[in-house]
Amino acid sequence: MNNESLTNVEEILEREYKSNFIDNYANLIADNIASLYKHCGNDHQLTLQMLMTMSKDDFPLDDKDNFIIRALVRRKLNKKHNLMLSSISNDKIVKINKKPKN
Questions:
Q1: How far apart are CA 76 and CA 53, in angstroms?
Q2: pTM of the full predicted structure?
Q3: What CA–CA distance (Å, rounded) separates 15 from 27?
Q4: Which long-range contacts (C-beta less than 8 Å, at least 24 apart) are formed by 53-61?
Q5: 96 in helix, strand or coil?
Q6: Is the pLDDT of residue 46 over 90?
Q7: What is the four-CA torsion angle of 20, 72, 56, 50, rounded to 10 degrees?
Q8: Mean of the pLDDT values across residues 44-68?
């Protein structure tokens, strides 16, 4: 692959990654608003901007959390994208395969 086509692929990926982020960020914000309402109703002082910012917060993840995330990634790849990972190690390049047809 030459540099020009790599640049085109990188631009396409960047647009798709941004689109994926926006979609999932919106879902996270909506879920966090629902959690806030569930536990506080309207008895809070949070603005939408505050909730959006709070939804970007990172959480320290332990081994159990990372195990759950990896399982959810595998499930989503399988069900939504018909793909599977042949390796999902933090220190190895991700290898992706189409899910075999039954």
A1: 26
A2: 0.80
A3: 19
A4: 55/25, 55/28, 55/29, 56/25
A5: strand
A6: yes
A7: 100
A8: 96
Amino acid 3: pLDDT: 65
The whole-angstrom separation of Cα 5 and Cα 30 is 37
Closest Cα partner for 48 from 39, 38, 37, 59?
37
What pLDDT shows up at residue 89?
Answer: 72
Q: What share of the chain is helix, strand, coil (3-state, %, to 5)?
A: 65, 10, 30
Give the separation between CA 9 and CA 13, rounded to whole angstroms: 6
Q: How confident is the model at residue 97 (pLDDT cuts 50, 70, 90)?
A: confident
d(CA 27, CA 62): 24
